Amino acid sequence: MPAPRLFHQLTAAAWVLTTSLSLGITARPAWSEPIVQTRASHSTQLIFNSPTPPDLGNPDGRQRGGASRGPCHSFESLTAVVPTTNGKVWGLTASAHPTLWFYLPAPLTADTAVELTVQDSRDRDIYSTRFTSPNTASGLMAIALPTTADSLEVDQSYQWTLAVYCDPGRPFASVSVSGTIQRVALSPTQQAQVEAATPLQQASLYAAEGIWYDAFNTLATLRPTAANQPQFTTSWTELLRQGNLEPLATQPLTTCCLSRSSQ
To answer: Measured over all CA atoms, what is the biggest interatomic distance in the chain, rounded to whole angstroms?
Structure first.
């Protein structure tokens, strides 16, 4: 596998990850070979090895909100910050309670409600929240699944939908995006490797294994304090470019909605 050989900066360790899906089907993404560190250099190169979504009949999802009328027109470029692979809005996480990111193209007001719903394969809600966040500026918005919600189970897929109710005159009018998230397990060795790495190295490790949600969230969390650092800027831009989301690289982070995720 040629791509993982580019990772010369990270601690040497085997990074082998197998995803066992339900229904007796086993999917094996192209996980990386051992990662090697080169002491002569201090840069970290990030490459996102996009895994292939399993063909289990999950809905394709919707990455962008699409054309809308009236007050909802300003939200039509609402975007889920997750790649589209083989036509599916789909990504991996190693977290039991991951953080989902979205591009909010217009400010929120007291009349603009936001709703996130996450369902399991039986269409049962494992988490649902609806709230308003007045005076929230446009930008990249995070909603974390709280620890009070059911944990995502390893090797299971979950459907999520984010809707913005943007027309006070029509309470049911909304712009929405949707997709699938699947949890994978890290081995004890892999977990120790992540814990020993710097945040920038962690993002590269996750990206090398195709674990999009964790790679992006790690960089987004680092951004407020590292935005002017060349290594961070390169990794941030590269991850979004490789996910075909490069236009979002210059968007600011909003103050919504992590504080409300625990509600």
So the answer is: 62
What is the spatial distance between Cα 123 and Cα 58, in angstroms, rounded to a whole number?
Answer: 11
DSSP 105-136: -S-B-TT-EEEEEEE-TTS-EEEEEEEE-TTB
Distance CA 29, CA 74 (A): 38
Q: How far apart are CA 45 and CA 67, in angstroms?
A: 37
For 195, residues 6+ apart whose C-beta sits below 8 A from its C-beta are none
Q: What is the pLDDT along the chain (263 residues), one digit of tens a residue?
A: 443 333 333 333 333 333 333 323 233 333 343 333 322 233 468 999 999 998 877 789 999 998 778 889 999 999 999 999 999 999 999 999 999 999 999 999 999 999 999 999 999 999 999 999 998 999 999 999 999 999 999 999 999 999 999 998 898 899 999 999 999 999 888 899 999 999 999 999 999 999 999 999 999 999 999 989 999 999 999 999 999 999 999 999 998 875 444 44
Distances, alpha carbon 92 to alpha carbons 160, 202, 208, in Å: 13, 15, 12
Instruction: Please give the single-letter amino acid code of residue 243.
Output: G
